[in-house]
TrEMBL record:
The keyword Lyase applies. This is Putative pterin-4-alpha-carbinolamine dehydratase. Keywords: Lyase. It comes from the Archaea. It catalyses: (4aS,6R)-4a-hydroxy-L-erythro-5,6,7,8-tetrahydrobiopterin = (6R)-L-erythro-6,7-dihydrobiopterin + H2O. It comes from Haloferax denitrificans ATCC 35960. Pfam families: Pterin_4a. The keyword Endoplasmic reticulum does not apply. One of its GO terms (biological process) is tetrahydrobiopterin biosynthetic process. Its EC number is 4.2.1.96.
Length: 91
């Protein structure tokens, strides 16, 4: 199990484009084409499976929303921030 991060740790380490929403971190990625968003969501899913840490992914017409939290720990951990960085690398 990973340790929960403090509010200060989260604020200091949260990547650009990501926001905090309670016990989750959230980012909305925008795309010009629906299928580009679907492809991105698929690549995010592959990364998540490799890391065995799975986000909530919502696909909309020109955007994909990704939400991360560590359910077992009850909040945000290093695992979430690491995965957020990996997802950003998929762009």
């Amino acid at each position: 199990m990973a340790d929960l991060l403090s509010d200060d740790e989260i604020d200091a380490q949260l990547g650009s484009g990501w926001e905090r929403d309670g016990d989750e971190i959230v980012r909305v990625y925008e795309f010009d084409d629906y299928l580009d968003g679907v492809a991105f969501a698929a690549s995010v899913g592959e990364v998540a499976e490799e890391e065995f840490h799975h986000p909530e992914i919502t696909i909309r017409y020109q955007e994909v929303e990704v939400r991360l939290t560590s359910h077992e720990e009850g909040g945000i951990t290093d695992k979430d921030l690491r995965l957020a960085d990996l997802f950003d690398d998929e762009l």
